[in-house]
Amino acid sequence: MSGSVEVRREGSMAFVTLSHPGRLNAMSRAMWLALRSNFEALSTDEALRCIVIRGEGGAFCAGGDISEYPSFRFEEDSLRTFHEDEVWAGLQAMLDCPVPIVAQIEGACMGAGIEIASCCDIRLAAASAKFGAPIAKLGFKMAPREAALVQRAVGDVLARDMLLAASVHGAQRLYDAGFLLQALPDDELPAAVLAHATRITALAPAAARLNKATFLALNRSAASDLVPTAYRYADSPEHREGIAAFLAKRSPAF
């Protein structure tokens, strides 16, 4: 089972669900490709007024599917292909989507999860949700454009703490940082998200699309300048040890 990204349409609203049972909806390579294709399709739907993205089974997304990593991460070209042609292409499809996107965040929102959430216009979370990008434990860095995206969304201080100290933070901290619009009691989250999405669908759709185009233009970054040298660490001992330790369920020896 490599996971899926499912889309359900209800009137002028669409629900996108990340689904990877048993892995807290960790993103597989197939899921990144599906994220891109689904958002590209949704972007062409002129009748659509709001998209809600969420995870299945009480988690948003726990990160990447690390079980796949040994097959491609230790060679520079295949690592670059993964991040630029699969991960970033999926995230860019979300960023380019002209329809307002609301994130419904429960449980784990880690690594790939916080990147996906950072592409959303409005984020609401359950009070028990946890946020971070503890990839320092795996011996590798966040790709340049992904790091720039997260830094803009969560703020410089939290982004550095997540990446340099592998810190995990609660919903209240992310609310205080301005990443979340609301941090709600867990049982209130679905209704609050639906109410907010419904409010968006009642407003002028053309104005929403114009506002999204403005935000996208303002948030363009120069992180792409770092891409040519970003993946030279592919065959490094730390990279190999971090992933091997995770898969063996032991502490890494850096």
Automatic annotation (TrEMBL):
It comes from the Bacteria. CDD domains: crotonase-like. InterPro entries: ClpP/crotonase-like_dom_sf, Enoyl-CoA_hyd/isom_CS, Enoyl-CoA_hydra/iso, Enoyl-CoA_hydra_C. SUPFAM superfamilies: ClpP/crotonase. Keywords: Lyase. Pfam families: ECH_1. Belongs to the enoyl-CoA hydratase/isomerase family. This is Enoyl-CoA hydratase/isomerase family protein. It comes from Variovorax robiniae. The lineage of its organism: Bacteria, Pseudomonadati, Pseudomonadota, Betaproteobacteria, Burkholderiales.
